[in-house]
Amino acid sequence: MPPTARPLAILRKRARPPSQCRPYSSHPPQARLNLPIDFSTTPLLHHTSQSALSSPSLSPHIDTSTLPPSSKPSTTRLPLHSAINAALAHALGASPSVLLFGEDVAFGGVFRCSVNLLDTFGPERVFNTPLTEQGIVGFAIGVAMEGGKPVAEVQFADYVYPAFDQLVNEAAKVRYRAGRNGEGSQEEGRQVLEGWGDGGQSCGGLVVRMPSGGVGHGALYHSQSPESLFTHIPGLRVVLPRSPSQAKGLLLSSILTCPDPVLFLEPKTLYRAAVEHVPDAPYFLPLSTAEVLRPGNDITIISYGTPLYTCTAAIEAIEKDMKGVRCELIDLRTVYPWDRETVMESVKKTGKAVVVHESMVNAGVGAEVAASIQEQAFLRLEAPVKRIAGWSTHMGLAFERFNIPDVARIYDGIKQTLEY
Q1: What domains, with CATH codes, occur in the chain?
Q2: Is position 133 annotated as part of the catalytic site?
Q3: Whole-angstrom Cα distance, residue 302 to residue 127?
Q4: Per residue in 111-134, pLDDT tens?
Q5: Which of 103, 133, 328, 358 is the catalytic position?
């Protein structure tokens, strides 16, 4: 036998018979924890209009001034991509300084987030660009510095790297370089709503939207989660919504009121999976403010975006198996600058913390959160802070489900931390 054939012969001998193999990376038969998320029942979504309108995270921010006299706020059941479309439509209608552009944006976009906006607002405000991320973001920076509010779409977050220099060396530094770091810059950002203005030479109003994260079959170039690369850069804000209602409010704040450039990463697997009641009236959710989704006293779970759904499933299972345990779940919403106060208050109460995210564990968002907890809440900790994240490897086509934290991994991490 030739030497090169020996490894193949050994592999064939050791391989399981086809009847015992699963050529896919979904949950196995008889699984107890790693079951598909039921988006029709998850408590993270508003399944009724009353739930959305009475939510303490939404109702105080709904702009009732836009409603006819004596009428009450209403909702529409929307998937994530339609909620983003509604936010873009309101922003374009609210200010003539808002522009929307990117690859295939005028046609509705790959994920249909900009559908019909060209017909409504015209080709001067909604238009396609050449296939050049550096050019798209560079043009957007110029528009923002002239007082506009450009919303640039990078078709997939995996393609943002050619624009990295523009974002880090230009957009993030504009306000600092111009000496516009005072409180007045935010007011100047609001004034631009009335027209083009000069914006105080900042990049406030610049929003770079990009679909992000795993989708089950995206492989190397369509499933990356690059958010942590931008959380090292002062001057940028990095936002990841968990649901349609959150996406609408956070996107409107990013476009119309934020004095800083915003990277708005949209979990692509939720575009059609997450459907809920979304208020029809405009509302602006605060950036850099975390939200406690589930109160508890025994352990703090910190996450953002899609993993919040697997965290919820793991929490429900752990609370069923470990009687009396109550887990607190926090959605960061903005991962830079993130809400340290809310996280520290929770960890000082529970004494234990687990951070979960989809992107790679090395130098990820969880590393910064864990280090901050060790610095600011060390004397209250009863166990080491645990990070549960994507492995330090590239996203393989057939192995994506094994790379991203699943319910079983999160369950085990919570259990280990509780029993420490």
Answers
A1: 49-279 (3.40.50.970), 289-418 (3.40.50.920)
A2: yes
A3: 38
A4: 999 999 999 999 999 999 999 999
A5: 133
